Amino acid sequence: MPSVEAGSGSAAIAERWRGRRLIFSRKGFDSVFGGRPSPVLPDGRMVSLPIPEPESPITYGDCFAQPDVTFADFLARMGAGRIRDGRNGATQHLEVRPGLGVHLDPDLRAGARKDRPPGWQPLFGQADAAARHLERMHAGPGDVFLFFGWFAHAEYRHGQLRYVRGLPRFQAVWGWMEIGDAAQAGEFAARHPWVAGQHPHFIPSLTVSYRPNVVYMATPAATGLPGIPGSAVMCYSDAARLTKPGCSPRWWSLPEAFHPTNTAWPMTYHPPASWSSPQDGHVTLQSAAIGQEFVVPINDGIQTWLTSLIGTATTW
């Protein structure tokens, strides 16, 4: 992938980013859904494991973690015979099989499903309280989602994928999406008829209680970054790691540009007490245990960090 140096944003590029929002979006397996970290493969690919949705007609056998390897087969290679489902506060352990429903969201890789329709673009849906939060923060075209989750490095042992012994688990950014279009699902489907059956937020049996039900689509290219797509799934790098070395996963290290004294308003869900004082250009954040979407206005320092992160990322 073409690289973009951290300082390559000219005044014109910086102006294009002004007034936009960065959204840290928690996605993939966690302690409630799945019950285990997603793996970083030996070649560096970050495979965010999508959470179960038992009633979905989209299944772990329909979706692909790698070319020709379904998520059902991939989980079997991980030794995950059952996975946790904490829906509605009632924990159950679901048998992993090809017919088990999955909530593939965000859906960023064309290769994650077969027979994509003409005009397909990466999609992300949000509903209920998290969607209302994004609406209150006026999230829309031009804003950027950074999808993060709980990860651990993995290796192959005797043909099986296992976590590397002795290495810590951590939170990291595994993908991004710059929003090109956003609307309530019904309005969105009217504008983009190809979405039918392509995403869980367009399946009426799953979304009947979603209030609201909002869908976001990626822009084809990142703003002001030649050759960089508007969305992608990343390979691991230290730049993508959020967890501060030597700390538990929720303790993040970020550039001091994120500190509330440097932003027009604090990152949502993170009051001033969540932040350390800036030191050596960085701050430590105790990230919120609840909440899916953390929104912060993009300032010049955040724009430089974001440009470097996605501009130098290896994607797959």
Architecture overview:
The protein has helices at 11-17, 71-77, 128-136, 185-191, 204-207, 300-311, and strands at 21-26, 38-40, 64-66, 69-70, 82-85, 92-95, 123-127, 144-157, 160-163, 170-184, 213-218, 231-233, 251-255, 282-286, 293-297. By secondary structure, it is of the alpha+beta class. It has a domain at 11-26 and 110-311. Strands 1, 2, 7, 8, 9, 10, 11, 12 and 15 form a nine-stranded mixed β-sheet that branches. The chain has a two-stranded antiparallel ribbon with strand order 3-4. The longest helix is centred in the C-terminal third of the chain and has 12 residues, at 300-311. It starts with 10 loop residues before the first helix and ends in a 5-residue tail after the last helix. Mean pLDDT is 94; it is low at 1-9.
Give keywords.
316 residues, alpha+beta, nine-stranded mixed sheet, two-stranded antiparallel ribbon, globular
**Low-confidence parts lasting 5 or more residues at pLDDT below 50?**
1-9
Mean pLDDT: 94
- Rg, Å, rounded: 19 Å
| Main β sheet profile | 9 strands, mixed
Order of helical and strand elements: HEEEEHEEEHEEEHHEEEEEH
The tally of helices reads 6
Share of residues in helices = 10-25%
In short:
This protein is α+β, with helices and mostly antiparallel strands. It has helices at about 10-15, 70-75, 130-135, 185-190, 205, 300-310, and strands spanning about 20-25, 40, 65, 70, 80-85, 90-95, 125, 145-155, 160-165, 170-185, 215-220, 230-235, 250-255, 280-285, 295.
